[in-house]
Amino acid sequence: MSQSAYVKLVPASIQQVITIDELKDLLLYYRSITTKTGEQLSWEYAEAAFPYTIEEKEEAKGKWFYLKGLDQRKNKYILVGIGKEVDTDNEQHYIQFTLTDISTHGDKGKANEFCKFIASKLKGELHLFNGRVMYYYPKK
Predict the structure, then answer these.
(1) What's the burial of 87, exposed, middle or buried (CB within 10 Å: 0-12/13-18/19+)?
(2) Which residues contact 93 (CB under 8 A, 6 or more apart)?
(3) What predicted TM-score, i.e. pTM, was given to this entire model?
(4) Could you list the pLDDT tens digit for every one of the 140 residues in the chain?
(5) What is the Cα–Cα distance from 122 to 21, expressed in whole angstroms?
(6) Residue 42 gets which letter from DSSP?
(7) DSSP 3-state assignment of 34?
(8) For 58, which DSSP code?
(9) Which domains are seen in the chain, by residue range?
């Protein structure tokens, strides 16, 4: 059974709408900063911090993509997409991280890391896989 975590973009977030390309850029930025950290420590940290390739199918253009693990024994797949919830008065955009039935515990740990990074960068509201909520935006 698949599990999902969400980064919701609230009115206090840096931006209220995000595109797939912006989301990919955030993940690539995460990979670049962890690579630089590894270089400073003289350790090949990039593959450990971001052990995935970003893959997109033709029918998913602009909606979702998946992260495919480099070492299929440790990491398999994480689906990443964007969407919006529409209420009567407003709409709220979100980023969804989904673990498939074949995802590993390593995938879940990395998905949690990615969610926390993106939520902190965008100052969003993070709904974790276990149902808990973390608030990264300033409260009034």
Answers:
(1) exposed
(2) 8, 9, 16, 17, 18, 82, 83, 84
(3) 0.90
(4) 689 999 999 999 999 999 999 999 999 999 999 888 878 877 777 778 888 999 998 888 889 999 998 888 888 899 999 999 888 788 899 999 999 999 999 999 999 999 999 999 999 999 999 999 999 998 87
(5) 15
(6) T
(7) helix
(8) G
(9) 3-19+52-135 (3.30.310.120)
